[in-house]
Amino acid sequence: YQAKLQNGGFQFFNKSIISTFLRKLDLENELRWAIAKNQFTLFYQPQVSVETGRIEGMEALIRWNHPILGPVSPGEFIPIAEETGIIMDIGKWVLKEVCLQLNRWLSASLVVPAIAVNLSARQFLAPDLASSIHEIVHQTNCNPKHIVLEITESSSMHDIESVLPILHELKSFGFQIAIDDFGKGYSALGYIKQFPIDILKIDKSFVQELTSDSKSAVITKAIIDMSHGMDLRVIAEGVETLEQLECLRRMNCDMVQGYFIDRPMPTEQLEKHYLNEV
Ligand code: C2E
Ligand code: MG
Ligand code: MG
Ligand code: MG
């Protein structure tokens, strides 16, 4: 690149465009090996009941620690994994890992709340999504009732006709379904009525403006009331302050997840602070 730049040909590209491009190429190449090289781990973030403060769920969040690049955030690499299709393998890896972890916890006689796993929009394009998920729970001998599949609103929007039968199939296996990041992106309410969902997660952008922007508060309250009217449980994401928690309590929100409660953490820490024996 330097030589070409000196020749003058690419001088109109500025340095930051080139480094962004190179970074992406690097990540893309490295992502292909990340599973085989054991570079992924899962962190777990507690979801607690607003009423009791007890843990009622936890979300599995992938972490990538590359030996040379260091930690790379999912916000940066998940979009690349989606673009390249590598998300298909990552998705399977995450679910299998969660199943194995669940088994370890259960066989240690720990009380384990439901574990939420993120599914990417792109995974719904695989015609064998449901069967590959079934294969994983079957292989690991895991009961899907312990697992919540989180799908993002935007992903499920595109093509209701093709997503709907897949969701019904996943429900029939025993999984719970949550809509993630609700309110962000293209909100069409029609699909909520059609989708077999159990949980709705309010996007953190609303939660974070809850106490500073009255419109965000009105929307949050409306989402909570609407969810209850449809027998869904509501989780508020990104709760960072006591004021937000108190506000959500007044609004009858069921569960909260966020830094104010706790950060995503490694399994050992979660066990120590949140899991008790039967
Ligand atoms: P998400 O599914 O909405 O997950 C919640 C994100 O919010 C996580 O970011 C979490 O660490 C962060 N978070 C939790 N509490 C707070 C808070 O109080 N304040 C703020 N500002 N953030 C908070 P993370 O782990 O960086 O993941 C980002 C996104 O990457 C996730 O958003 C999800 O869409 C995706 N992702 C993470 N793990 C996976 C995975 O295993 N598979 C797939 N397909 N996507 C994943
Ligand atoms: Mg999520
Ligand atoms: Mg998500
Ligand atoms: Mg979310």
TrEMBL record:
Annotated EAL domain ranges read 24-278
Superkingdom of this protein's organism? Bacteria
Identify this protein by name: EAL domain-containing protein
What species is this protein from?
Answer: Paenibacillus marchantiophytorum
